[in-house]
Design a protein that fits this description.
single chain; alpha/beta; Aspartate Aminotransferase, domain 1; Aspartate Aminotransferase, domain 2; 2 domains; binds pyridoxal-5'-phosphate
């Protein structure tokens, strides 16, 4: 059969409210043209993020009803611990309320001021937690990652030559090395098994611990199965086990490939490190058998981590992004290629060549997509990353002007995607009349969340 269907049927539905173009115009104006300020109930298709927004299965909901809320030694914790040990092989599993809590705990133990941490690309919270410890977060993505239209099977790879140079010069100053799988900031691009193995070997030479930011480990494992020689006959579980075997531990957000609405964990082999982490955990997250989560959350995660490895799910998951990408490319809309696991990234610079960076083509596109179809994406360009030149006061634009459409897991059907594709293509047909945006108010940090805009001229 050519048609790939969603590998589930729907047992519970949530209504989405239809709005008219006229209504959406008013909503957008009231939100000062910032999609973060639009109420979720005024959105038709929400592609703002894939974090914590997926639909849970009947098995997860029934596990939640069986959640054990005991303060210490909860049955739900042992189920959570068992599946993580099975997948990762790590000896110690420490639950946290989100991925960033695992990062904060890990870095506050391992990272000292003045040190540096290499990674393919640090996710924003990872970078922020390293910098908070007065250390430097260094991105070493392969050069292919910088070219949106370039096709490469593993654009998430780390540049091994650059890592080798960095290790030769600074190894005494590197407390740990990391790889983010998939590489979120680089478009959800996978890292190959060979790259994971060689990164581990380079770090091992200098006895530097190696950690994975494993948020989308299952998507990455399925990409390896599809694209890397020698893996097509292996199960996703076996591939994931091999990935984790090369590292000393991982941080993880359960809101991504944990298929849950909240949760995360830190898993490590080193018993001393685990003991230190549990001491910090008790200070701010909770007792080591719940780490800031309800027993029912641990129960939902235990099931989600098992379901995420189902190959029919992963096939459908990766095909969804690929399908949208194909439809857009067919009419000439530029995107980051090949499509990654959890999102499609539109190239707003080529979508709106007449809008200069200082009028934020990505922000303009986010607004037009909302107006056209009630679809919410997020700008990843000069609004998010533009920097003020301290001398001239002018803004230095970001390298790329992108709009990310990230997909909640198991939430939208093919016709929702077809609708979103139609909205994007219609918006593209009307591209010449689109106007840029001006920032009329901004906060000193992370301005994209709260900035106010008005249409430019
Ligand atoms: C989401 C994410 C995190 C942080 O996880 P939270 O649960 O949001 O705190 C870290 N790294 C990557 C790659 C992520 O995608």
């Amino acid at each position: 059969m050519k048609t790939l269907i969603e590998p589930f049927k729907i047992k519970m539905v949530e209504a989405i409210r239809q709005t008219s173009v006229q209504e959406r115009r008013q909503i957008l104006e009231k939100a000062h043209y910032n999609a973060f300020k639009i109420k979720a109930e005024d959105i038709l298709i929400d592609f703002l993020t894939d974090s914590g927004t997926g639909a849970m299965s009947d098995r997860q909901w029934s596990a939640m009803m069986m959640g054990d809320e005991s303060y210490a030694g909860s049955r739900s914790f042992f189920k959570f611990e068992a599946i993580i040990k099975k997948i990762t092989g790590y000896a110690h599993v420490i639950p946290t309320h989100q991925g960033r809590a695992a990062e904060r705990i890990l870095f506050s133990i391992m990272v000292k001021p003045g040190q540096i941490v290499p990674n393919n690309t640090h996710f924003d919270t990872t970078r922020a937690n390293i910098e908070y410890n007065q250390a430097a977060a260094i991105d070493l993505a392969v050069p292919e990652a910088m070219h949106p239209a370039l096709i490469h099977p593993f654009k998430g790879n780390l540049d091994l030559e650059k890592l080798k140079d960095l290790l030769e010069q600074r190894h005494r100053n590197i407390p740990l090395g990391m790889l983010t799988i998939t590489n979120n900031s680089g478009g959800g691009q996978p890292v190959s098994m060979a790259n994971i193995r060689e990164t581990a070997q380079l770090l091992k030479k200098y006895e530097i611990p190696f950690f994975l930011d494993a948020c989308r480990f299952a998507e990455n494992a399925y990409f390896i199965k599809q694209r890397e020689k020698g893996y097509d006959q292996k199960s996703v579980l076996e591939i994931a086990q091999e990935i984790f075997s090369y590292a000393d531990g991982c941080t993880m957000s359960g809101k991504k490939d944990g298929m849950a609405n909240i949760g995360g964990f830190l898993a490590v082999n080193d018993g001393r490190l685990a003991a230190q982490a549990r001491n910090l955990l008790i200070l701010t997250e909770g007792f080591p058998s719940y780490g800031g989560l309800a027993g029912r959350d641990l129960a939902a995660l235990a099931v989600g981590l098992e379901e995420v490895l189902h190959e029919d799910y992963l096939k459908y998951r990766l095909r969804t992004a690929e399908y949208m990408g194909e439809q857009l490319l067919a009419v000439g809309i530029q995107i980051i290629q090949p499509t990654g696991g959890h999102a499609v990234y539109l190239d707003a610079k080529s979508f709106y060549p007449h809008i200069p960076s200082h009028h934020y083509p990505g922000q303009a596109l986010v607004c037009e997509l909302y107006k056209k179809g009630g679809v919410r994406g997020v700008e990843i360009g000069s609004v998010m990353f533009g920097k003020k030149n301290p001398e001239t006061g002018n803004e230095i634009p970001a390298a790329m002007e992108l709009v990310r459409l990230a997909f909640p897991r198991r939430t939208y059907t093919q016709s929702h995607f077809d609708y979103a594709i139609e909205a994007i293509i219609e918006t593209y047909h009307e591209r010449e009349s689109a106007k840029g945006m001006r920032i009329i108010w901004e906060a000193p940090f992370l301005r994209h969340f709260t900035a106010k805009f008005s249409p430019a001229g």
